[in-house]
Amino acid sequence: MRCGIGSFDDLTERDGIKAMEVDLIFRVAGIGIIVAVLNLVLKRAEREEQAMMTTLAGLIVVLMIIITEISKLFETVKSVFGL
Length: 83
Prior knowledge:
- By secondary structure, this protein is mainly α.
- The chain has one domain (22-81).
- Helices cover 75% and strands 5% of the residues.
- The protein has three helices and two strands.
- Helix 2 runs antiparallel to helix 3.
């Protein structure tokens, strides 16, 4: 399906190089929203320790996702420059 500027395929792949997908942003935002809601519910139930652990677990999950994407970026840079 074509829109005004281009198709969805034009956004995900340009000149043979895949761009960062919007799916990554939605995953991180979704995890953030879930963690925020859980944190709020646990604090209202006076479970401060569990709220902190939930926040910490959410942060670790997001960092693991980002580390994976950064690793892919470094591999792409290495293959482009032939290192």
